[in-house]
Fold this protein.
Amino acid sequence: MSRIKEFNLPDLGEGLTEGEILAWLVKVGDVIELNQPIVEVETAKAAVEIPAKWAGEVRSIFHPEGTTVEVGTPIIAIDTDPGAGPVPESTTAAASADLPTPSAASLAAVQVAPAEGMVEPGLIGGVAPGGRTAVLVGYGPRNGPAKRRQRKDGPPQQPATTPRPAAPAQVATPVPAAAAAPASVAAAAPASVAPTVNGNGRTGGPVLAKPPVRKFAKDLGIDLATLTGSGPLGSITRDDVQRAVDGSTVVAEPLAATSPTTSAASFGADREQRIPVKGVRRLTAENMSRSAFTAPHVTEFLTVDVTRAMKALDRLRGRREWRDVRVSPLLLVAKAVLLAVRRHPMVNSTWAGDEIVVKEYVNLGIAAATERGLIVPNIKDAGRLTLRELADAMTGLVQTAKAGRTSPADMSGGTLTITNVGVFGVDTGTPILPPGESAILAFGAVRELPWVHKGKVKPRQVTTLGLSFDHRIIDGELGSKFLRDIGDFLADPEAALLAWT
Amino acid sequence: MAKGDPAVSSRGRRATPRSRRAAATGEPELVQLLTPTGERIESATGPDGTEYRVDFTDEEYRGLYRDLVLVRKLDAEATALQRQGELGLWASLLGQEAAQVGSGRALRSQDMAFPTYREHGVLYCRGIDPIMPLGLFRGVDQGGWDPNEFKFNMYTIVIGAQTLHATGYAMGVHMDGKTGTEDGEAVIAYFGDGATSQGDVNEAFVWASVFNAPLVFFCQNNQYAISEPLERQTRVPLYRRAGGFGFPGVRVDGNDVLASYAVTRHALDNARLGQGPSLIEAYTYRMGAHTTSDDPTRYRIASEVEAWQAKDPIARMKAFLYKQQIADDAFFAEVDEQARTEAVHLRERVLELPDPAPVSMFDHVYPHGSPELDAQRARFSAYMESFEGSVH
């Protein structure tokens, strides 16, 4: 029975409480070796591969990719002796293929592990042999009802008449006499302090609050000076702040309710959804507000007839060596940007305080909407690539992003970005610069529109380009020339290529 | 003050971007005896004209290779153990094997070493059981071993603190009259590039210098202080700092085990002969994370790591042994097998490390106890005894 071992998600980085399963590298039935990578897990600190703790055969996988798992929870069960015939009755339940929940069976299995010498410290909610709840290694000291060992009969501090603890409830919360006394003192102390604090009501001097509470209040827009503290020395606690927030909500609701004429309107907190700001969303927010309020943005627009470019693309698709390549209008836009950068190197630069860093290489960022949010991976030194290489790089980049496998290295070091808002069917926008970059191009939808062509109004393929640039570095003249060159290329790629290269 | 002001302004602001950049990132001159492709260089000259060379037997060359492979494998095993929840933390030495094995093998039995928390390779070369520091990282002991027994101080977590300990120790060696002969005693202090910004390290430089302490400052410049790159530590090559303190400094290819050995041996010999301290900057690269809690992809780019991969210390040694026909496939296979076996053995023993008894917290407060402490121990023991199933 104990040959089935379950592996609990360990604390991978000093005090983490959870991790997200990014990808399973093995599947049920696989025979694996010791230290073979089995799963990729992303924590708040790092994305890491976990090597198998035991060799054997994968019996079950408890959590699918994409789930967030608490530290200490079993994630995989491994049969450490698959050659020894069928598994005994009691574990077969846990071994069914469709993501079984590790419940009683798994806990039993986990508890068995240490008994046969495989040290398994730090079980959460389970008690190791000898009765300790070990927390030294691997798993943080998480909650879990702290099961305490039972006191022997008649400990010195307790009266001899104490009945034997029989009911489980009593066992779970033994209150030694020694512990009871401080508890009552603790309960009494705030009671005696609080009235004096509230009575004094602090009429001056600094407001007392711990830094996290100050941060908490600041985030919520609460002025600490307006609150009365219930903590030691009249300091303001997190609860005080929370109460103030709840209080103001309560005040707001009656106001809404007292306007009975608008019968249907209801906009209380119960009809608001609160989404925690984290991960990619937080990063995006930080980057965007940092960029928007440090770099003075200017945006210019250019509407271009791209009919020739579209035809050129069709001809490209028709060529044999391009047959299995994904060719999109974005490819030509990327090429246009790279060529235009060569003519105006200054746009590919970074504002670095007392100097401007002009880069000879272009790490071309492509903004991509993914399930995890907006990410901007970039093609390193894209200027050196041929058109074919560029196409391959863009395809790879998008596929990686869609699969959620874009590494931080892929996203760092971008120098100039294209955002393809056209795929959402809109014409253009005023994009915000990624921090550290000086120009970003929005590529709008390509539409068939009436257009004056050779003196006559004709239906033509038209798109709008929007270029935002950092006005500290790039003047209107340079920005306009850069945008115009991109437009020139898209209006007539062959001619631009001949003229410029 | 009036004199100082112009100096401050000229130093602080006037340097042109060109000269600053050249100082911070220009490819440095370093002592190298084995190129990344495994070509042997007969001898190399240090900045002060010292000629460095080594003359190993085939057996010794193979021994160095074996050290490098074993040290890397045991380190990888410890990293895996952390990922499996069996260690709380691990600081991997991946990439720095040659600097550690080269300097570690240059030590003589009477020499004393003061490590950081990453010197698993030096520890191995001192002949110490590699399990010794794992109790610390597993959290079952405090990492307290007898430095005198192993001639290897305890792992020091505080950045740079051990350089002061080493300086005091080396001053003691000097005062005891154990220097000045061919068989004198020397001390080596390990630290990293980040530590050079610490006050402790600079104080150690001053004290070691003016008291002529028989001490080798061995700085493994692995390019990163956790996430901070070298250009945030210094504007001059680190080895040149020594000049300002009044002792010689040399930069060695820290991925070249032969040069690391040659330079360290020379510096140790100078120290044991009573010629005072010196600074070695072993120029290397931390291929892995700072510790298992760190994610280096957030602050450095893949191409940089790839560039250093091409300078791998083990690959160049293997290429050299192969080309010179000092070793054959059978030897390499045998070393790999030995490494695998020792890693499994280490894993088994780590898993069996006992958790400390609660009462053991009283054991090492005083060497011979104290009445107050004994009373506390007795009370605590009685308390533990009061639980059912107690084995205390």
